[in-house]
Amino acid sequence: MHQTLRITEIFYSLQGETRTAGLPTVFVRLTGCPLRCQYCDTAYAFSGGELMALDAILERVAGYKPRYICVTGGEPLAQPNCIPLLQRLCDAGYEVSIETSGALDVSAVDPRVSKVVDLKTPGSAEVGRNRYENIAHLTANDQVKFVICSREDYDWAVSKLIEYRLDQRAGEVLFSPSHKQVSARDLADWIVADNLPVRLQLQLHKILWNDEPGH
C-alpha cells in the first residue's frame, strides 16, 4: 500500500517566521494536532484534510519549483508518515524545515531537516506537554521557539534558555510575541535589557496578509 498523509493544504508563499523569514517557501500543512494552545492560529487544520500519497505530495511540491519547504500543521509528527516525507523532500534537494510543538519525539527526523521546536510557555495552556527529552536531539541546524504571552512567560522562557543552554544547543533561539497579548516593542525592550542571545521574531504573514489562510 502506498504511504499516505492527511493534508490540510499545500501552498506557496513567503516564510513568515524562523531564520528563513521572507524567503519564498512551499508549505505542506498536515492535518491533526493533539495540543490545544490558547493562541493557536491554525485550528482549521485540526480535522478534515485530504488523504494524499507521498508521491502526489512530492509532485505537487515540485510544481512550484521551490528551494525551501516547510512541513507544518497542526502537529506534523502526529502522523508517522511525516518521517518518510521529510526524508524524501531532503533527497529531492530541497532545504527542509519542520515546525513541531515539541510534544512529540523528534529523534527520527532526518538530520538534514531544520527542526523548529516550540517550548510551550505557561501562557500557552499546554506547558505540561513539553517533551524535554527532545532538547538532547537539537543541533546547530535546529531552532527553538518560545511564544511569549506575558512578562511571566518571558521570565519562564529565560529560565529555560539558561537551564538548557539552548543558545549553545540550537542554531537559533526565537522569542515571538503572542499576537495581541504582548507587544513586540515590549518584548524587544526586555530582550535588549537582558542582553539575551535570542532573536526577536515577528510573524511576517500577519503583517502582510493579516493571517489569511493560504499565506
Brief summary:
The protein is α/β, with parallel strands linked by helices.
Provide the spatial order of strands within the biggest beta sheet: 3-1-2-4-5-6-7-8-9
Radius of gyration: 17 Å
Quantity of strands, as a count: 9
Proportion of helical residues? 10-25%
Strand content: 15-25%
The biggest sheet, with number of strands, parallel, antiparallel or mixed sense and barrel status, is: 9 strands, mixed
Q: Catalogue the unreliable spans.
A: none
User: What is the chain-wise order of helices and strands?
Assistant: EEEHEHEEEHHEHEH
Rounded average pLDDT: 94
Number of helices: 6
Principal-axes geometry comes out as: globular
Binding site for substrate: 14-16, 29, 72
Cofactor: Mg(2+); S-adenosyl-L-methionine; [4Fe-4S] cluster
Binding site for S-adenosyl-L-methionine: 39-41, 74
Enzyme class: lyase
Describe this protein's structure:
- With 215 residues, the chain is α/β, with parallel strands linked by helices.
- Helices cover 25% and strands 24% of the residues.
- The chain contains six helices and nine strands, in the order E-E-E-H-E-H-E-E-E-H-H-E-H-E-H.
- It has a nine-stranded mixed beta sheet with strand order 3-1-2-4-5-6-7-8-9.
- Helix 5 (184-194) links the parallel strand 8 (172-177) and strand 9 (199-200).
- The longest helix is centred in the last third of the chain and has 13 residues, at 151-163.
- The protein is globular.
- The two termini are 33 Å apart.
- [4Fe-4S] cluster binds at residues 33, 37, 40.
- Keywords: 4Fe-4S, Iron, Iron-sulfur, Lyase, Magnesium, Metal-binding, Queuosine biosynthesis, S-adenosyl-L-methionine.
- Residues 20-211 form the Radical SAM core domain.
- Homodimer.
- Catalyzes the complex heterocyclic radical-mediated conversion of 6-carboxy-5,6,7,8-tetrahydropterin (CPH4) to 7-carboxy-7-deazaguanine (CDG), a step common to the biosynthetic pathways of all 7-deazapurine-containing compounds.
